[in-house]
Design goal:
This protein has 11 helices and 2 strands, in the order αααββαααααααα. It is mostly helical and about 260 residues long. A two-stranded antiparallel sheet has the order 1-2. Strand 1 and strand 2 form a beta hairpin. The N and C termini lie far apart (about 95 Å).
Length: about 260
């Protein structure tokens, strides 16, 4: 017969599976500090030895890391998503920048469509809350905070799509942006006219999501990335023209 006796599961294995799922679902984020050992054991209803055994297993697998005197953190799993040599290659070629934006356009359009269909009421509330914070940062003319919230807004939509592969892929994409591999987001938000237009686009995305309009959400997200792509194309052209003008100036001065 194909049946086997059910073996009771060790408490530490249950702890590992729960923490794994929280990381997989993006609820526990890379670099996030876990509660203290005592607090975490109480929250999960397990003994501290069982918790220690679970954390030791996760640390050996590279899922969590210990910082001396600071506690236990979710490992920065995205650091190895792209090799250093590939990141360096990305940074040196404009073709990678525009392919990056095109990839995000497709991925975020799909995420927005799924979020409008599958996101819970709480998911949509989170997205709207972040958008309201963006408006506040916009009114206070704080480009650095607005740029930070921009990333949070986009990631919250991917989280609401409830596709864990898309979520971790998007996290890897934004990690490259955070490292400044492609361009400086804060630079874009320093231009008042551009900031106004970006806020309007984020408002359109949020409105479509709150109305649970999948097609509208997808179209608004893709229109936003089309705008970013044009913005970066214009900026690159401006930089090239400036470099040509500088060379002409140096040549004329040397004559």
């Amino acid at each position: 017969m194909p049946f086997q006796r059910i073996q009771p599961e060790k408490l530490s294995h249950s702890v590992v599976r729960q923490l794994e799922m929280l990381i997989l679902r993006g609820i526990l984020r890379p670099g996030e500090r876990l509660p203290s050992e005592r607090e975490l054991a109480e929250k999960m209803g397990v003994s501290r030895p069982s918790l220690r055994e679970a954390l030791s297993e996760m640390q050996s697998r590279g899922l969590v890391t210990t910082k001396a005197g600071a506690g236990i953190y979710v490992a920065e799993l995205l650091d190895s998503a792209f090799s250093d040599s590939l990141v360096s290659l990305f940074a040196g070629h404009d073709a990678a920048l525009f392919d990056y934006i095109s990839f995000r356009r497709d991925l975020e359009g799909m995420s927005a469509e799924r979020a409008a269909r599958l996101g819970s009421e709480m998911d949509l509330k989170v997205i709207d809350t972040i958008y309201q914070k963006m408006e506040a940062a916009h009114l206070s003319r704080d480009p650095s905070e607005e740029a930070r919230l921009d990333a949070e807004f986009h990631l919250s939509i991917v989280e609401a799509s409830h596709n864990i592969i898309m979520l971790h892929m998007m996290r890897a994409m934004f990690n490259l942006l955070h490292q400044g591999v492609f361009y400086n987001r804060q630079m874009i938000f320093r231009q008042r006219g551009t900031r106004d237009e970006l806020l309007n686009q984020h408002r359109a995305i949020n409105n479509a999501l709150q109305q649970r309009d999948p097609v509208g959400a997808r179209d608004a997200a893709q229109a936003h990335l089309d705008y970013v792509k044009k913005l970066m194309s214009d900026l690159k052209r401006s930089e090239e023209n400036e470099e040509i003008a500088r060379l002409r100036f140096e040549h004329a001065r040397a004559m």
